[in-house]
Specification:
The structure holds 3 protein chains of 3 kinds. Chain A is mainly α. Chain A has a single domain, classed as ABC transporter involved in vitamin B12 uptake, BtuC, CATH 1.10.3470. A two-stranded antiparallel ribbon of chain A has the order 1-4. A two-stranded antiparallel sheet of chain A has the order 2-3. In chain A, helix 4 packs across helix 12. The longest helix of chain A has 27 residues. Chain A starts with a helix and ends with a helix. Chain B has one domain: Orthogonal Bundle (ABC transporter involved in vitamin B12 uptake, BtuC). Chain B has 14 helices and 2 strands; from the N terminus they run αααααααββααααααα. Chain B has a two-stranded antiparallel ribbon with strand order 1-2. In chain B, a hairpin with a 2-residue loop joins strand 1 and strand 2. In chain C, helix 6 links the parallel strand 7 and strand 8. In chain C, helix 8 packs across helix 18 and helix 14 packs across helix 15. Chain C is globular, with a radius of gyration of 25 Å. Classes of the chains: A mainly alpha, B mainly alpha, C alpha/beta. Chains in contact: A-B, A-C, B-C. The interface between A and B is large, with 46 and 44 residues.
Amino acid sequence: MSSSRNKNVVLSAVKQNAPIVYLIIFVAIGCLFVPNFGSKANFLNILRQAAAPAVSCIAMTFILITGNIDLSTGYIVSLVSISCGIMVKTLELPPYLVILLCLLIGCAAGAANGLFVTVCEIPSFIVTLGSGMILTGLAQLVSQNTSYHDLPDNFRAFAKAEIFSLPITVFYALLVALLAWIILHRAVFGRELRALGLNAQASRMAGIKEKKSVFITFVISGGLTAFCSILMTIRVNCAQPDLGGSNFSFEAITAAVIGGTSLLGGRVNIPCCVAGALIIKCIESWINILNLNYYLYQAILGIAILIALIADALKNRER
Amino acid sequence: MQKSVLKTKEFFRAVSGRPLVRTLVIIAAVCAAAALIPNFLKFSNLMNVLRQASVIAIPAIGVTMAMITKGIDLSTSGVIVFAPMCVVVLYRGGVPFFLCALCGILIGILAGLLNGILIARVGVLPFIATYVSGTIMLGLTMVIGNGGSVTGFPKGFTQIGNGSVLGIPWSNLIMLVCVAAGALFLAKTKHGNRIYALGNNEAVIRMEGLSPEKLLIAIYGIGGFFSAIAGLLLSSQLSTVHPTQGNSYQLDCVAACILGGTSMLGGSGTVVNSALGAVGIAAMRNALNLLGLHPYVQNLVLGSLIIFIVAVNVLLKRRERRQQESFHIRRAENG
Amino acid sequence: MREKILELDHITKYIFNVSTGRPIRGTDVKILDDVHFDLYKGEVHALLGENGAGKSTLMKIIGGIIPCDEGVMKLDGKEIQFRNSREARAKGIAFVHQELNLCTNIDVAHNFYLANEPTGKFGLMKEKEMYEKSAEAIRALGFELDTHTKLGRLSTAQQQIVEISKALSYDSKIIIMDEPTASLTKKEIEMLFSLIHDLKKRGISIIYISHRLDEIQQIGDRMTVMRDGCYIGTMERAHYSDEQAVNMMAGRVTNNIFEKEHIPGDEIVLEIKDLKIGEAAEPLSLTVKKGEVVGLCGLVGAGRTELARTIYGARPDAGGEVWYQDELYRKRSPGKSIQKGIVYLSEDRKIDGLITAAGVSENLVLSALHQLFPGGLVSRRRQKERVGQLIGEFNIKCMDRDQLVSTLSGGNQQKVSLGKCFAVEPKVLILDEPTRGIDINTKFEIYHLIDQAAKQGLSVLVISSEMAELIGMSDRIYIMRGGTITGMVSDEEEMTQENLVAKIIGV
């Protein structure tokens, strides 16, 4: 009797954390069939590569949980990257000020998105499609067609240290994941967001302030995206106005959806999101090792997210 | 004071209420502003504007129909590069060009049908279904062409994009034919009637024994068809296929429809108005180009324009809906 | 002349299991129970009944929208069953719904011919023919409309005429009209009636659903009354009287009467002064005292839910004041109301009362998140405590506290919804149809809970369509009709079903 109940508990735990299971399967397949995949160096590399995408995926999760989307994240990255370059090289501001200002820029962009979505009640995909264009235009305008290479060491130190032979960015990503987990799974705010995503009308009737909450999610997402941009800029050691772009947004959305976040809102699982980011980087690793056409990556991601979408849509039919 | 407020309100409503008027006003505005720019009003430049507008206007036919049914099509940028990429690769492989072109168009139709099935039968939201399918096609285009351009079209082909007959570019003629066909379909056939009805009241469609799903799948299939044609046209104009050459069309086509008065909330919009909107967008890009502004700055202007128009559109609809609600209470009261 | 065109006998429809869609036979709760209905050629047969009497269900069966579980329907003497509304229409039965089956974004002619568009060369619609023929069809009814007009620009009455003429274009012999005058002005009603007279002369029969006794007297040849899914009786026009109609509609024998225990206080806790629920609505005023249960009755569409939601702050008002504990409550919102201790139980728990995709615990604490967890972090222990209390108090039967609400029975779902309201320790309860769609035992549990709440000093405003229930629970009852509060009954002798029903339909 108790063994069948235990079985049910295990089954439902597996169901809820499916992406982590998928990750394990991916890694297992990789270790078995892809040469050198199972090496320590490769695993370290995957973790290193997955740090920034994990942060962007978590940022996207905040938006997805209320049933919205942000197609402009890639362009927020562009704007923050080039601003970073200008602040560091031209204005020669101290690193911590630069980081703070960049976060503010990200939050401001998010706030603008949030305003149009909440106050004007325009569907988020149109707002962020439009704002993405504006942001990339701004980034190009601000850059005056220059990129900034060779960023100063005191700035790069922010993301260059290594602990246990892992770059500090991995730990930043884990910190962000921890904070996000606390907010979304343990805080009242997270409860409200989940309720809004599942049933906005009922949540409003229960006194949850929809507009304020959605606005805050856009601001948080913008800030996290800016943080991600700083990490990426330091890693490639180049502040450029075309860092990120539409590929970036797509990767973030794909990682989130593979990580079990439903596009209709309400369902989110931070550990699974991190797993999602790791999965897509595993795929990239396979492509690299097997020397496949690099561009296959985007196509495969697309098919992966398509499968996840179909599964999600079919599951939601029962809702 | 009251009278002048009323008059401005009436004027505003007249302009915003009738999409055709609004579109013409906007185009007139753009042209007037552009007239201040040297070279804009040159015949060759205007023909150029129309040439560029054709690649926006043709896929906009499908996007208009999608938006009428409260959906959207963001896969245009994908089909516009994927279809001609397949065409040129097949042609370089020795297949007669006519068959290649046919294949390309078929691929567009299939992509569209896939969108339709995802949206109507699986239940995926239109914007994400088309966004993802568009990205997949873009990815496949990059895989095939290894991320770079691919050339190799037959000589006659590039003539279509760049040549003219009797002074009128072939592109414009093709645009006219497509727009005319699309407009006739939407406005004058029974299918068009049902599409408008579907965007307003799905229950009625079902009650009449029609299938909303079949209509939706057909709409997106048609969208894919026109996107493929536009893709061939664009690659003919540029004599090449590069994966990123379709990127701007994702938003441009939607912007054209919105500019032409198609509502995001469904139920309204016409092919001709969307085509005029496309002309407006092309004219604006052209004008900014002549001013020497970088394409990305054009994006800035375009992005702001879209948000502005959609915001106005949505706010107007909200006011209309609120008026109707209080009206309803008044009537129930009178009874 | 008195030729029967339609006859229904022993029509029964059971409530159905929502997940399987199959009827639950053999239970006591039926939507329609052994109903009889017939219709003569060329007559106007009115159908009367309170909310939930089963009128719409019966009409849906006639119109082919839903099937009956038992019983026989004969059209022109031949037994018949429809699989969908198109089949019914093909056989001559047309249904003009309250929400018209038309599209407001296309013009009259295109609406008229939707799904049957005449097509000519190259597949193009024969538009000239469409405009002319549809105009003709409307003219044949005695009206003149420009068929080029977009439907959305027409008044409701005009839209109705389009729908009726469309129905007639299918050679309908029977037209069912569901509350056709709900949104019409007096003049438009007169036009409709003259149209109905015309149709009668042509031998077309009309089934006319309405609560407006004055209209039914004017237009009906016979009147049938339904109550609680049962057929009560039919009156001929000659023998008709308002009193009898009301008696038939309301006169049910209630075996179980709830005996309330609480005694209302004197202090006014909630006062509504001249509140307008819309621009053109009438100002409304009412009071609720401490420890009092005040009922609000009226037909669907009378404005009760709108009033409740406006008080709560879920809807904007167009003027007027809400006074709570002798203080003016301005800029109301659900969040503010909950903070003050005013809670609202939604009419439809599945839409905005509960989050059906979430668990019982989550739903129960949904309104009380800030109260229970002032620090901003959810304390599992505190949640468990409070949820445990509520589950016990409300006797919510669930296997697991995180069980999805969608898997609970209707009665338990409602108890969760109610528990959610009580989680914030409210002072004022606004309950909108608290016992809709639940079994009799749970209903009594809920009456008891409300009574106990009033005993402890809470003020309750209850909206209900079940007269017996409202009389059993309330100390006073306000009556709403057509957006206004037409009266208030506080005297026990006046609080009878007949009296209330008469008031809500305006006799």
